[in-house]
Amino acid sequence: PLENVWVTDIEGVVYEGRTTLMDPDKARYAQKTEARKLADVIDGADVFLGLSAGGVLKAEMVAVMAPRPLILALANPTPEILPEVAKAVRDDIVMATGRSDYPNQVNNVLCFPYIFRGALDVGATTITPEMEKAAVYAIAGLAEEEANDVVAAAYGTYDLSFGPEYLIPKPFDPRLIMRIAPAVARAAMEGGVATRPLADLDAYVEQLQQFVYHSGAFMKPVFAAAKQWVRDGGKSRIVFTEGEDERVLRAVQVIVDEKLAKPILVGRPSVLLSRIEKFGLRLKLGQDVEVCNPEYDERFHQYWTTYWELMCRRGITKEMARVEMRRRLTLIGAMMVRLGDADGLVCGAVGAYHDHLRFIDEVIGKKPGANTYAAMNILLLDQRTVALADTHVNDDPSAEQIAEITIAAAEEMTRLNLAPKVALLSRSNFGSGSSASGAKMRAALDIVREQAPELEVDGEMHGDCALDEGLRQRILPSSPLKGSANLLVCPNVDAGNIAYNLLKTAAGGNVAVGPFLLGANGAAHILTSSATVRRIVNMAALTVIDANREA
């Protein structure tokens, strides 16, 4: 009610009968009172909203406010009272300012760009109060969710959860556009001011997502397929072996929210609960996610005995099998896949790639007809999408292995709706050198052409020839490879890994998808220690697709 709202300005309290610096808006809040200063009306106040000048609110005024007062000191650059001054008086205040160097920055950047985005995208003829309220509710809803990993990285802490120090989202939160703009657009359509109504708001959100995540367009059909498998009851139980890792937990929250899979976390329940609370996540163990406790699980007897049966002629005793099963998390996950307790495996956020591959090889093994594993990464660059293989597995593969890797990588690209154009790379350019690697790549080309004659492939060639058709045509006009190659097969893992990391880093904000593990007899993928939350989410969706393809 208006009687609970007291307005003050440079002249003091707005009261009935005041004539200086008055206007109709102020007159609406005029009180019948003898009070003339802010200090006269602040006693017992629940909220202070300042849009005035620095130093207006004094420490002694804060002291007499109601319990747990909300102080919005929004004057810039100096707020009505500095947070450290207010908190020196009492420790129960909840405070926001307009400055970025204090918690809870109230700034137009949180809403204006996204209000305009939603309004313009539906051709709104005006911005209505309902559209403004929709933006407010969208911001409020986001504030109560866990902090995004991008925000946590920008502010140097993952310890951001709703409370006195985190009342509103940070300006860097990439989810703002995906929450506010659709809410505003919906309000405009419901209010009858939209001249271009959107037929599908979910599709609109996906469109906006592409401005936030560079992998959005590439992953859109993958996410759609994964969600469909979940809805249809397909294979979607994906085990994450580093379940206690912060990035994995945040990724699993996204996966649960977007219904991309049914996650299984390998982790100690007490640690999982503690970290879920610490990071402000909403995951409920046993409801949103299944848990496999590495310290005790009734299935472990079957797991370790099966492992021993697989490895008893490779130097593993019963006792070793029992111990390994409790301390090797990827071994647990691989056994869950083998025995049908999970449909797919995502591991590798912590530890060395080959350590994880060892357990996948021992338990899941190679698919029929496969003789080697390999890793393929896809880079979504500004001007092109490029896949590289082998980036993590084979130190110095033979020509036969190169050929197998090439065909497997090309098949994976085809499944991702990318038409493979393959270049076999070398420091020799179409026979210009006599190096062993050049000869190996030429031999691999012959094998590929024999085993996959339909594949568009050529080599051996330099990297610039692979990407520059004009240069390639000047050197070898008869090359069957047309356009720019999008699958670059390297002669050894050093070349593949170095090229991948250089391209990924030099490309700045561009995104890597992968690594894809090629050759496994099941849906299993090994991340790297540099994996981001978004990359983990992407690989989980891809693992769901793989699980159902393998089925």
Automatic annotation (TrEMBL):
<feature type="domain" description="Malic enzyme NAD-binding">
    <location>
        <begin position="2"/>
        <end position="189"/>
    </location>
</feature>
<dbReference type="InterPro" id="IPR012302">
    <property type="entry name" value="Malic_NAD-bd"/>
</dbReference>
<dbReference type="Pfam" id="PF03949">
    <property type="entry name" value="Malic_M"/>
</dbReference>
<dbReference type="InterPro" id="IPR036291">
    <property type="entry name" value="NAD(P)-bd_dom_sf"/>
</dbReference>
<dbReference type="InterPro" id="IPR051674">
    <property type="entry name" value="Malate_Decarboxylase"/>
</dbReference>
<dbReference type="GO" id="GO:0016491">
    <property type="term" value="F:oxidoreductase activity"/>
</dbReference>
<dbReference type="GO" id="GO:0016746">
    <property type="term" value="F:acyltransferase activity"/>
</dbReference>
<dbReference type="InterPro" id="IPR045213">
    <property type="entry name" value="Malic_NAD-bd_bact_type"/>
</dbReference>
<keyword id="KW-0560">Oxidoreductase</keyword>
<dbReference type="InterPro" id="IPR002505">
    <property type="entry name" value="PTA_PTB"/>
</dbReference>
<dbReference type="GO" id="GO:0051287">
    <property type="term" value="F:NAD binding"/>
</dbReference>
<dbReference type="InterPro" id="IPR042112">
    <property type="entry name" value="P_AcTrfase_dom2"/>
</dbReference>
<dbReference type="InterPro" id="IPR042113">
    <property type="entry name" value="P_AcTrfase_dom1"/>
</dbReference>
<dbReference type="Pfam" id="PF01515">
    <property type="entry name" value="PTA_PTB"/>
</dbReference>
<protein>
    <submittedName>
        <fullName>NADP-dependent malic enzyme</fullName>
    </submittedName>
</protein>
